[in-house]
Amino acid sequence: MMIKKAQQMVVFNALTHQRSFTKAAQLLDISRTQVSKQVQQLEQRLGVQLVQRTTRSFALTEAGERFAVHCANIVAEINEAESELVQSSDSMQGILRVGSAQSFARHHIAPYLAAFHQQYPQLDVEMSLFDHKVDLIAEQLDLWIGMTDSPPEGFVARHLADCHFVLAASPDYLARRGVPYRPEDLASHNCITYYSRERKDNIWSFEQGGEQQNIKVSGNYRVDSADAILDATLSGHGVGYLATYLLDKEFQEGRLVRLLPDWQLSQYMPLYAVYPRYQYLPKKVQAFLDFVRGKIGEPVYWDKVL
């Protein structure tokens, strides 16, 4: 019933502005008969005559003039609401809410936000950093960027890159505990592992010439932060199975030594950009996504450290 009322008010508003049933029909892209029928039903529902019509003339009654003001206000509100939404989603203003894996954001998003704001000074960015599974609706996010094997269903998931791993330890640790030359040698080493509610990475995978080895490792330090694993490895705590996106000049400066270089670490984590399904992707989301893609490169720049 409410939809019918609104529809009749829109038709009556077009009629009062066009002062012609034919022109109102053309404006609304409906038939002249439909315009006439809608106005008649409106008058019957209200119990009052709104239009005086003859074959040659058209005029609003006093009641019609008063009602036309309200109809014009309703149509203006509809247009304003729609315009406001279109402008906010199609402009580089307001707030962009982005979620990201903590360590990835620290290394590859946060350092470049100043440059992003120079490009889009009227856009505010709210960053939420977490490593648990994302719920974009509950977290009220426009976009999430992070590593996951299984992107959430019902959303758009754009693959950005594959994050690879490298085995490393500090010179100090290797001087104390010796150098592992084969994957099975890791059984006698203190291995630092990623451990969280969702992931327990205590199986390290290696491949060489078609030979695949999955080694169950252990150690006295398990942590749910990739950055913490890097810090512990640098401090000589143990052997780290490190994501390459964490690294910069640690190998060149001799702070870390790459282990088992003849073996390929076959584990990897896909990096995705995840966002709600839109008929038209908001410009601010597209701009941030393009900015991040431009910074990480293709292939990704951090793998050049290897």
From TrEMBL:
Cross-referenced SUPFAM superfamilies: Periplasmic binding protein-like II, Winged helix' DNA-binding domain
Alphabetically ordered keywords of this record: DNA-binding, Transcription, Transcription regulation
Sequence ranges assigned to domain HTH lysR-type in this UniProt record: 1-61
InterPro entries documented for this protein: LysR-type_TF_proteobact-type, LysR_HTH_N, LysR_subst-bd, WH-like_DNA-bd_sf, WH_DNA-bd_sf
GO biological process: DNA-templated transcription
GO MF terms held by the record: DNA-binding transcription factor activity; sequence-specific DNA binding
Recorded family membership: Belongs to the LysR transcriptional regulatory family.
Name of the featured protein: LysR family transcriptional regulator
